[in-house]
Structure formats: structure tokens, C-alpha cells
Amino acid sequence: MKAAMERDDPLKHKTHVSGPFLRWAGSKRQLLPRLRTFWRPEHKRYIEPFVGSAALFFELQPNSGVLGDLNPELIETFRQVRNRPRKVSEALRSFPRGKKEYYEIRSVDPKTLSPIEAAARFIYLNRFCFNGLFRTNLGGRFNVPYAPSGTGELPREERLVQCAKLLRRVELRIGDFADTLHDVAEGDFVYMDPPFAVQKRRIFREYCPGVFACHDLDRLGNLLQDIHGKGARFVVSYADCSEARRIFSSWHPRRVRTKRNIAGFSESRRYAYELIVTNADD
Predict the structure, then answer these.
(1) For residue range 129-154, what is the model confidence (pLDDT) as tens digits?
(2) Residue 122, pLDDT score
(3) Are 167 and 84 in contact (CB under 8 A)?
(4) In the chain, how many domains are there?
């Protein structure tokens, strides 16, 4: 009986990590209790091609996996935290606080900085920008405005060190989601939370060159068939919309209620519905 109980709680012996070190618009932290139920200890790898803040990864703490994203600054930040968390923390502590200072740091070209300084700058801007958004202009430069309140504190060195230990278990990839998924194999677990692209209504999504668009839904749908055919398990979370219902109809999508966290003031944030799509057995 004891062994059976332990199998029922695969997260019982997790390393203590108090969540991701980044904020991220559209993060699935509210849905973690639901999403974690699809994970099984016997899965060989955890694969996430739209990694964002990696909230589910840090919740599950798998032993191996692949984290990918089209955003090179994001993945390079993960790499620097993985390899040099204390140095990143030291650089982060050296940055001054305040609105004027934020815009000065935002104006710096990250290509002129060392990898450690660029990672610290990314974390700093992510922490003090409006709602944890990532958006760039046509030139590829981050342009999200400063948030005067509600951003919380910068992650402490202890958290970066804890996150680094978990990130050393995975491979980090920069590229299109199909590239990250090219070697999915039997026994893998794939979680996908692409930026929402909906034709008939406005839903915020991260803005950077090549970002996920409506036409990519068909590619995603074909990939799900491929992943299923290889004997891997997948879970997708997406906006509840007619396009998604059409693409995912074969998998009996489940509707869940969540709260949008993009609005500027908490009292104006609204509940919305998303779809969870999976080939997992109930």
C-alpha cells in the first residue's frame, strides 16, 4: 500500500523551488494543479517548445528533457542561469532601481554586454516591465514600458541556484517549435503552450520575429498526429476558439476556466476559457 501511495504522488520528493525566476504573460501557473496530473514518473523526457517561464517544468522537476523557444534572449538567459547562477545574481544586484534607470537599461543593446550581463538585464527588464510581457519593435528591440508597482522583487541568488540545478537536467534549444520536437520518441512527454493566435478577437501574445500565428495551427495539428504515432504523450493549452476546436477536434479538447493576467489593473482582469488538448488516457 505504501508503494502504491508513493507512485500516486510523483512530486513528493521534489527539490524545493519557489516557482520560476521569470514572470511571463500567459503563464499557466493557475492551471498547474490540472496540468501536473498528466505527468507520469515513467516518462523518459519532458519536452516544451514554447518554454516562456517554464512554470510547468519547475513544478514537475523531470530528470531529463528539452526546453526550447524561438526567442534567443530567453534561451540564452536560461543557459546563463544554468551555468553561472551566482554570477548572474551578482550582475543583477548591481542594476539600479527606478523608472529612469529602467529605461536606461532597456536602451542598452544586449549584444554589447557579456552573456552574464545580458542575462541579468533580461531578468531585470522582465521583472520591472508591464505585466511580464515580452514584445519587440520591428528592429527586434525590447520595448515594453516600465511598471510602477505590482512587479515583486528580483529573484534572489538562492532561487537562481535552485533553478540552475534543475536546468542542468535538460537540453536548451533555440528555434521553431517543429525543430524542438524533431526527435520526439516513445515515452516522451510534450507540453505546448503556444502564443494565442485568434483571428476574430484580440488576445495578447508575445511579439517577436516569427511568432506563432494562425497558419501555424495547422502545422501544430499535424505534429500532434506525429507525436501520437511515435508513442509519446502530449498536452496542449490554447485559447478556446473556433480555429483551435477545428484543429484539435480529434483529441476531444477540454474547456477550462482561467483568469487573463494582461490587463493593467487587477480589478479589470477577466476570466476566460482555454482548451486543454491531450492524447493521454483519462
Answers:
(1) 998 889 888 788 999 999 988 888 99
(2) 97
(3) no
(4) 1
